[in-house]
């Protein structure tokens, strides 16, 4: 049932009949609570983690150009060496299947020598960035087919959703910022580009490579800054999506810890069973030491025991019940206030009497044994 509270406000600005209605149930459905560890773990198992794809792309781009700068001379030597070999042999040898096969293998080998180091660097950086963002997680749930993905209505809703609008704004902003930096770079290097016409081919190629790497590093740095901002946005959006309502927190607590009412019933039943088993042990006792009304402790001693054992104890109502069962089964009831209080406070059910109480308990048992012998 929906819970609605109303109150009437009377003042100079509002008529006395004005009634404000607050829908308490509506406030309960607002996601105002931070996600619990269980909620986060469930989202992680589904592959829902705070991750920025742009951060990995930016770092991979910078790593690729950095590796290219370090291996540039090596790549240049490999390519020029292969081109010299190719053109020197290509014009002198007859083109056969064997020679074409050898040329192809040499080309593949040069390609691996030049490209493979850069690819390995990109792979290592990509794996490292992903691990630092989300840790080690593996989930096939995002790959599972879902009917909602082929639903045209759901597709249109995603297309015109808030997230799609944010992604569009981010893309346009990134294009605008990167274009601005490229424009500034072109303005700065206009004179240097014009100077390239005076250089020979080798020096011009080196100058163009240096300009290209400089531009790449600048663009990469700009994209990296935007990617870091995007990561913090993804983290904030992820936390917002995982927030819970107060009712969801209560339901999760019930599922995790159990319904308090059910747990209370279980504990009550467990106490009742334990009490019943304790009362069943009272007839086996040798003596029940009382306070006389507040405490009652049932003691049992057999030859195999190192010391007398407390097999039942109780206070007030339970003490009366223990005494009643003891009298019905012919168990001696002895009043000893200090001993009864000491046994109740220091010994739990199933434990033996501590050494400091041996003397007092031995006197009570000796009295009980003499009494039983006299009666028999």
Structure description:
With 376 residues, the chain is an alpha+beta fold. It has 2 domains: 37-137 and 154-250, no CATH class; 280-375, secretion proteins EscU (name from scop, 3-Layer(aba) Sandwich). It has 13 helices and 6 strands. A hairpin with a 4-residue loop joins strand 3 (287-290) and strand 4 (295-300). The two termini are 73 Å apart. One of its GO terms (biological process) is protein secretion. This is Flagellar biosynthetic protein FlhB. It is found in: Cell membrane. It is a multi-pass membrane protein.
Describe this protein with a few key phrases.
elongated, two-stranded antiparallel ribbon, 8% strand, name from scop, T3SS_substrate_exporter, 376 residues, disordered N terminus, alpha+beta, 4-stranded mixed β-sheet
- Rg, rounded, reads 43 Å
Which parts are unreliable, with pLDDT below 50 for 5 consecutive residues or more?
1-22
- The strand order across the widest sheet is 5-4-3-6
The quaternary state of the protein chains shown equals single chain
The coarse silhouette is elongated
Mean pLDDT: 78
Organism: Sporolituus thermophilus DSM 23256
Main location: membrane
Protein name: Flagellar biosynthetic protein FlhB
Membrane topology: Multi-pass membrane protein
